[in-house]
Design a protein that fits this description.
Length: 388
Amino acid sequence: MRAAFIPFPTLLAGFVAVLVGYASSAAIIWQAAAAAGANAQQISGWMTALGLAMGISTLALTLWRKVPILTAWSTPGAALLVAGLQGSTLNDAVGIFIFANALIVICGLTGWFARLMKLIPHSLAAAMLAGILLRFGLQAFATLQGQLLLCGSMLVSWLLFKALAPRYAVVGALVAGIIVALLKGDVVTQTSTLGFVAPQFIAPHFSLTQLISVGIPFFLVTMASQNAPGLATLQASGYRVPVSPLIVISGAFGLLLAPFGVYSVCIAAITAAICQSPDAHPDPQKRWLAAAAAGVFYLLAGVFGSSITALMAALPVVWIQMLAGLALLGTLSGSLFQALTSAHERDAAMVTFLVTASGITLAGVGSAFWGLVIGGASFALLSRQARA
């Protein structure tokens, strides 16, 4: 893969995907590590290990299948760990990581998860993806209320480029936002430092009580809220990939690297959607280049893991929110179109979309899973009525 043959918008899609991934969950990961008693140096090591793990696994899967497959850590899982690891030790946390990732590998080896994914109608998968992405679109335009100059300039730039040079629309928004943020003095660069912090090996400790109370819910949340949406996103984008090998490989990465703070390696959904969109590359068969670029950016982020929090602090949050929303707009509209194309599946798709977009959490499991469950039940019931 040579950068000279990768269009700039494709490289940008990979960069934005990694930026969104870190911006949306880096703080949660730090809270989860701190809950287990990690100090600043150890947390920086976790961020290093996570970046390297995502970079290696993304490149391995993408180059293997020539499909835009991104991996990610489980943000819902990290949120669960913030509460679940209170009072635990780092050794207990690593034991939980190993246990949960071992269960993920078993799911892939047995093939039951692949069979489940084949049962999901394409319209429901697209509706679920649209429901996941809706909050990013709403969040982007909500920034106009408090940051009209910064975010308004990004929106105007995006619209102008969309009309004149569509492939560079996100580029235009990014540059316009940076220029305005610099002129306003919103970029705080003095807190940003570069450095490498090597991950530390932490021996696992297995507590049956914690494996049951934290490990099993963490496994279920990771599968339901991260792997299922990630695989559905690939399906909704028109990519057919073998489900079981992806689950096995991603779970194996998490299993092997758990002692270094890699609590999960999952199939990405939201960040992957950026690299799977037409903005990444007009040819669907070449969008894997954007994912490969994201893998390289993940590796760079891992090398400078200690600087992630400082870099996130240097960028205005609203700039990241607007950029993410604009980058995902094409995927959101395409998913809605696919979800609502078939008249006899439209009601079930809308149920899936609304439940997913609601953000509800039931029994510790996120709305993406329940969107598929409730939408799938609606699909089965309405299809039976249509046949009758």
